[in-house]
Amino acid sequence: MDPNYHNQNQRPAGPPQPPAQWQQNAPQQPPQWQQPQQPPQSPYPQAQYVPPRSQPPFQPTEQIGFSIAGLVMGILGILSSCFCIGWIFGILGLVFAIVGKNKAPSQQGLNIAGLVLSIIALAIGLFFLFIGFFSEYDPYYYYMALPFFNLF
């Protein structure tokens, strides 16, 4: 075989090239379509979508203001009972403690304390009011009430 002999059936590797004269004036080939680049994968796991949980229906909060007012009125009633006005705070404390018992049943201790202090304030206030009322008219009750007024 002749080493200068080229096989006519043999094709060169790669795409066929146009003649050199055509390549000088030929426009550039349009770029071929490329697949879009994928964003780099994060080494961290992706967050999963969690639907929001439904909220429980609205329940009004307890109103403990009446319970606190009953307790405060009971304390004020005891402190002011020696001035013959403790019975007013005692009655107000009873009313507030009873209303507070209905509005805030979970505040049982606060309601009971307000009721007890209001009853004590009412009793002491009425006692001093009774002594003060009769002490103006009868000197005997006046001298009897003096030791109680000197204690405070």
TrEMBL record:
Compositionally biased tracts (Low complexity): 20-36
Keywords: Membrane, Transmembrane, Transmembrane helix
Bilayer-spanning residue ranges: 66-99, 111-134
Region called Disordered, residue ranges: 1-61
Protein name as annotated: DUF4190 domain-containing protein
